[in-house]
Amino acid sequence: MARKELTEKQFMVQRFSKTALRALHILGITGAGGGILLHVPQEQWLLYWIMAMSTGSAMMLWEIVRDWRWLIQLKGVLTLVKLGLLGLFIPFAAYKPELLIAIVLLSVVVSHGPAGLRHFSIVHGRRIGGRKEVKG
């Protein structure tokens, strides 16, 4: 069954929602990242951490629901790698700053890399298209 095109109002609501979610995510990353890099006590940046993790999870869910192929494109795969690096915060707590820097650098590649890289499928070995994205 083919999906119908979004109305202009639906498009604007989705775009604003995604932009707002991304803005909150960046705010959370900035607060938590500053706390980690500057060795601030965790209780002072924990709310930012929770904000970053919850908005990041929501954005990931948004992408998977929109198009499951996100999971096999480099933008999805690298996001899962970032989650793996986050998981290393526990066994390698002394290396949190270095892990955070690696996560931020991967984020730049995922967000600002060329489309041919972001849409490259690790399963197909080539760029694959997906459903039309709502930028934000």
How are helices and strands ordered from N to C? Answer: HHHHHEE
> Biggest sheet, in brief?
2 strands, antiparallel
In oligomeric terms, what are we looking at? Answer: single chain
User: What is the alpha-carbon Rg in Å?
Assistant: 16 Å
- Provide the number of structural domains: 2
SSE-based structural type = mainly alpha
Strand order of the largest sheet: 1-2
Overall helicity: 55-70%
Give the termini separation. 27 Å
| Apparent shape | globular
Transmembrane segments: 21-40, 46-65, 77-94, 100-117
Keywords: Membrane, Transmembrane, Transmembrane helix
Structure notes:
The chain crosses the membrane at residues 21-40, 46-65, 77-94, 100-117. Keywords: Membrane, Transmembrane, Transmembrane helix. The protein is mostly helical. Helices cover 63% and strands 3% of the residues. Strands 1-2 form a two-stranded antiparallel sheet. It is globular, with a radius of gyration of 16 Å. The mean pLDDT is 91.
Brief digest:
This protein has 136 residues and is mostly helical. The chain has helices at 8-37, 46-66, 74-87, 96-112, 115-118, and strands at residues 120-121, 126-127.
Key features?
5 helices; two-stranded antiparallel sheet; 63% helix; globular; mainly alpha; 136 residues
Task: List strands and helices in order, with pairings.
Blueprint: H1 8-37, H2 46-66, H3 74-87, H4 96-112, H5 115-118, E1 120-121, E2 126-127
Helix pairs in contact: 1-2, 3-4
